[in-house]
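Re: [ENG-882] Designed sequences occasionally contain unexpected residues at chain ends

Forwarding the minimal case from QA. Structure tokens:
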């Protein structure tokens, strides 16, 4: 499978497993899972056929490990705008986590902190490199340091997804560096 097709399938799956399952006629369960065969049938029905081999390749090759397969089910690891409960237990974060953004967002972030916007959680990276790549998707990246350990000690809850992305409800400005 060539890189262009891998990216195209990954984006298609992300759109429908995170944001618009109804658009292709699938229903995610409460935890975001859908049977693989149901997803593949829906893709084909909507004019975007994906083979099981292609799906397995995208799951394995995705640099961000955006998808989780469990037996005959698949779901997005995080980043949903549709209501799902990923069932992730609270976890103790490292002392510092990072958030990639762009300069034009800094004024609002400094005033309001990090908010989940259309998603359910704020996404934080365990390292600066990942945060830089995330921020670069929208322009020249700016990496913010989040004092996650201090937030945790102050009572904020963190969870970590299967692909290592840290999730929290929001980051108040006082915890941003």
């Amino acid at each position: 499978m060539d890189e262009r097709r891998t990216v195209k399938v990954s984006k298609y799956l992300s759109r429908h497993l995170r944001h618009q399952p109804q658009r292709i006629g699938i229903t995610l369960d409460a935890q975001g899972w859908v049977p693989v065969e149901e997803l593949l049938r829906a893709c084909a029905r909507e004019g975007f056929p994906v083979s099981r081999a292609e799906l397995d390749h995208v799951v394995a090759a995705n640099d961000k490990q955006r998808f989780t397969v469990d037996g005959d089910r698949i779901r997005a690891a995080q980043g949903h705008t549709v209501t799902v409960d990923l069932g992730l237990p609270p976890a103790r974060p490292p002392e510092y986590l990072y958030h990639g953004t762009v300069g034009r967002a800094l004024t609002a972030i400094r005033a309001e902190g990090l908010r989940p916007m259309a998603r359910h959680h704020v996404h934080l990276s365990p390292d600066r490199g990942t945060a830089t790549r995330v921020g670069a998707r929208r322009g020249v990246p700016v990496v913010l340091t989040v004092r996650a350990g201090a937030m945790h000690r102050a009572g904020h809850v963190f969870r970590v997804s299967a692909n290592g992305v840290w999730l929290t409800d929001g980051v108040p400005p006082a915890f941003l560096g």
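QA comment: On inspection the terminal residues look reasonable. The helical segments are 3-19, 36-45, 52-61, 106-112, 128-136, 148-153. Proposing we downgrade this to a documentation issue.
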